[in-house]
Amino acid sequence: MLFLPRMLLMGLHFIIAGILGLLLGLCRPFNPDNSRLCARLYSLPALCMLRLRVKTEVQSLYGQEQSCVIIANHQSNYDLYVLGRVVPPRTVSIGKKSLKWVPFFGQLYWLAGNVLIDRGNARKAKEAMLTTTETLQHRDTSIWVFPEGTRNLGNGLLPFKKGAFQMAIAAGVPIIPVCVSSYAKRIKLNSWDSGRIMIRSLPAIPTLGLTLDDLPQLMERCQTLMRECIEQLDQQLAKA
After folding, report:
1. pLDDT value at position 152?
2. Under a CB-based contact definition with an 8 Å cutoff, are residues 17 and 84 in contact?
3. Beta strand 195-201 with 175-180: parallel, antiparallel or unpaired?
4. d(Cα 146, Cα 163) in Å, to the nearest integer?
5. Model-level pTM?
6. pLDDT tens per residue, range 176-222
7. Beta strands in 168-225 (DSSP E)
8. Tell me, what CATH number does 195's domain have?
9. CA atoms within 13 A on the CB side of 193
10. Residue 128: its pLDDT value, please?
């Protein structure tokens, strides 16, 4: 009985948050802190509507004195609400160019300073990656990436793509993994309490001095750490 009214309420919230975020973007276009504020606009009311209990342990996200590349596992469209709660200041993300045409959300996503890339055009995608390197090095701005490139539906991490790690090595900035417990198949939107989720950020992994020859080892290290952390989070929730 709760699913339909909850989805209607969420749809209304999506539109209102989009309009407010768009106004914010128009008032201060391409300000990199717009992303954090918009993320909160979407996240905090939605988590209350969904009655999702989210526990966060993300100290390493807020203790950085320099820009970084943040990598996180991607499970569903609800990541916008779940992870929006922990986006740190001056952090933008990388998204598909097609997002620009999603009503309200796409326009505010662009005005928030996020990087839109055309994944079907290798030359333009490479140019965008060069832009992100300059952003990391000179604009005091971090970049949030889902290295799997698509949703994993809570079935374990998919193979990582190279882009996030190439950016971090090129800019010489650390990588901070953010791990979210498996929730995509466990969320109960027809129940009063939809479920519990845990988010944990891991210590920063330095890349200064690394070269592209170190790329495979860096990717394997990050994926192993994240996989182990997600398993730990799932076990903690199972015992609670």
Report:
1. 81
2. no
3. antiparallel
4. 10
5. 0.92
6. 999 999 998 888 988 888 999 999 999 999 999 999 999 999 999 99
7. 175-180, 195-201
8. 3.40.1130
9. 5
10. 67
Residue 211: both structure tokens together? 């070269």
Q: Which of 39, 44, 62, 42 shows the shortest CA–CA distance to 54?
A: 44
> How many whole angstroms separate alpha carbon 159 and alpha carbon 165?
13
Reduced to 3 states (helix: H, G, I; strand: E, B; else coil), residue 9 is helix
Distance between CA atoms of 168 and 143, rounded to whole angstroms?
Answer: 10
Parts of the chain with a pLDDT under 50: none
Report residue 109 as tokens. 């996503």
Note the pLDDT of residue 126.
64
- Token output for 165: 């790690």
Domain that holds residue 80: 3-239
Q: What single string gives the DSSP state of each residue in 32-100?
A: TTHHHHHHHHHHHHHHHHHTEEEEEE-HHHH--SS--EEEE----TTHHHHGGGTPPSSEEEEEEGGGG
What is the tally of structural domains in the chain? 1
Q: Say what the pLDDT of residue 104 is.
A: 73
